[in-house]
Amino acid sequence: MRVFSKAQIIARFNPELAVSQLEEGFIAYSEGKVQVPPVQGFAFKGANGDCCVKSAYIEGSPTFTVKLSTGFYDNPSKGLPSNDGLMLVLSAHTGQPLALLQDQGWLTAMRTALAGRIAARLLAPAQVKAIGILGTGMQAQMQLEQLRAVTDCRQVILWGRHERGLAAYTAFARELGFGVHSTQDAAEVAGAANLIVCTTPSRQALLHSDWVQPGTHITAVGADAPGKQELDPALVARADRIIVDAIAQCSQYGEVAHALGSGQINAHQLIELGTLLAGRAKGREHDGQITLADLTGVAVQDAQIASYALAALCT
Amino acid sequence: MRVFSKAQIIARFNPELAVSQLEEGFIAYSEGKVQVPPVQGFAFKGANGDCCVKSAYIEGSPTFTVKLSTGFYDNPSKGLPSNDGLMLVLSAHTGQPLALLQDQGWLTAMRTALAGRIAARLLAPAQVKAIGILGTGMQAQMQLEQLRAVTDCRQVILWGRHERGLAAYTAFARELGFGVHSTQDAAEVAGAANLIVCTTPSRQALLHSDWVQPGTHITAVGADAPGKQELDPALVARADRIIVDAIAQCSQYGEVAHALGSGQINAHQLIELGTLLAGRAKGREHDGQITLADLTGVAVQDAQIASYALAALCT
C-alpha cells in the first residue's frame, strides 16, 4: 500500500479534473448505482470529539473508499487542528489496500467546495452581482476559490462573527482578486449578493427569508450533522428549487430536515444534484427564482475524489 | 501516524498478554460500555469479493479502532491470498490517527483464535480426551496453537475435505507436539473428541447432534456471515449452555440464528461470553453437559487486540 501526505495530494490536485469525477459520482448515486453502507459515528463526550466513517463504492469503479474524519473541538487549546481525517482506497477487483491518503481532511473540504461549485454552475443567476459568503474558515475560502471557475463576479460580501476572522478572509479574498466588503450583519449579505454560500457550523438560522432577494441562489454546506442549521426554514420553503446531495441524508439532518420537520415543505419537492446533473430534473428557469442547494456531504464524493487523487498521484 | 507491517506485529505479539485485554473487551461489551456502530458491508459480485468495516470504542480507552477486512475468493487464481485487512488506531483524546496496522488479517485471525481459547478455558470438560478440529486452514492452526495454553491434551482428531489439507495440517500439528489422526468423516471426530473447534466456511451443518458425546464442548467460529453454518441446529438445541460473543449478532447470523429461526431454542437461553467472564452467569456445571460457544467475531475484539498490538509495538 502506498502512503501519501496532504502536501503530496495538494501538489498533484487539479480541481478541473476532479470536478467531473465528482459529477459522475452524484449521477451514479442518484441512479442507485452505488453501495453506500450506513455511516459509522462515534461521540467522545469527555474529549468533546466525534468521528465518522463514510464508505462508498460506485458500481464498475476499479476502487472503493473508506474515509475517516474526526472533529475534536478542544484540540486548538492543545495546539492541534480540530479536524483530521484520512482516506483508504482499496481495489474492487482484489480487495487489496492500494493507498492511504493522509489528507488530514483536505480532500473532504475540497469535495465539499467542488460540490458548491457544481451547484453554482447549475443554479446561479446569469448575472451574479456579488458573492455572499457566510463564515470565514477554510471552507469559506475554498468555496470562493472554486466559484471563480463558474462566475466572472469578483465582488464578495462577507459575514462573520469576529473581526479577526473577517480581516484574515478579506486579505485572502483580495489576494484572489476580489473586492471585499465585510459585515457582522447577515441581512446586509442577503441585500447585496445573489449568490450566497453558507459555510458555518451554526446551530441556528443565520439567513432569514425576508432578507433574501428574488433570483438568489444559496448553497448551504454547514448542516452536516443533526442539530446544525444555517437557514430559516421559511427560506427553504420559499425556494423555487430545492436541490440536495442526497434526499435520504438531507431529510435526516440537512437544512431541508428542519423545513420537512415543521411541515413547510414536502419530500417530493426535493431534487437530487445527480438527478439535475443527469438532466432528469429542471433547475433554475429564470432569474427571478430562488434556488437552494443543501449539501450535507455524501460518501460517493469521498470515493470519487479519492479515486481522482490517487490517479493523479500515480501518473 | 506510524505504519507497522504484519511481520513487525507478529514479532512483538504475546498471546498471553493479548488474551486478558480481549477478556476485558468482552466484559465491557456485555456491560454496554462500548460504542459499536453498525458494520459496513460491501459485496463485489463480479469479483466474488466482499469487504466489511468494523469499528469500536470501549469507554475509557485511550484509543478507538476501525478495521477493514476483505475476502476476494478468486484471488488465489491470481497468486494473491483470499483475505486481506488492516486496522487503524486513533486517539480517543484528540482524534489523531496513531497507527496503521497492516496485519493483512492476521490480527483478526488471532483475536478469533484467542476467543476460542477463552471459551475452551471456561467451558471445556476437565479431562479432554482428544481435541477435534474441523477445517485445515490458518484458523484451524491458530486455534490449536492457542488451546495448548488451556489443556494438556496433545491428541488431535482432524476433519477436512481434501487429502492435501489434511496432510499439511497433520505435519503442522505434529510439529507442535500433537498426535494426529485425520479423517474425512466428521462423525469420527465427534466420536473421539470432547473438545471440538469448527473453523470452516461451510454453508451446511457438518456436525450432527446424534454424533456428539455428552460432556463435549464445541466452539464454532465459521459462521461469521449470513448463510454460513457448521452445526446441526438440533445440536445447538441440545447444548446445556449456549455461549455467544454477541447476542445481537449471533441472532442474525451465527449458528444460533439457525436454531432460533427454526424455533428450536429461545433467545433467553443465550449467554454472552462477557457475562460469563464477569461471573454473572453459570458455565459448565459438570462433565456430562454439552456446551457450545458460537463466536461470530465482534469489533470490540478488534479494538482490544489492536490496542494491545500497538502498545507492544511501541514499548
UniProtKB/TrEMBL annotation, chains A, B:
One of its GO terms (cellular component) is cytoplasm. Pfam families: OCD_Mu_crystall. SUPFAM superfamilies: NAD(P)-binding Rossmann-fold domains (SSF51735). This is Ornithine cyclodeaminase family protein. It comes from Pseudomonas taiwanensis. The lineage of its organism: Bacteria, Pseudomonadati, Pseudomonadota, Gammaproteobacteria, Pseudomonadales.
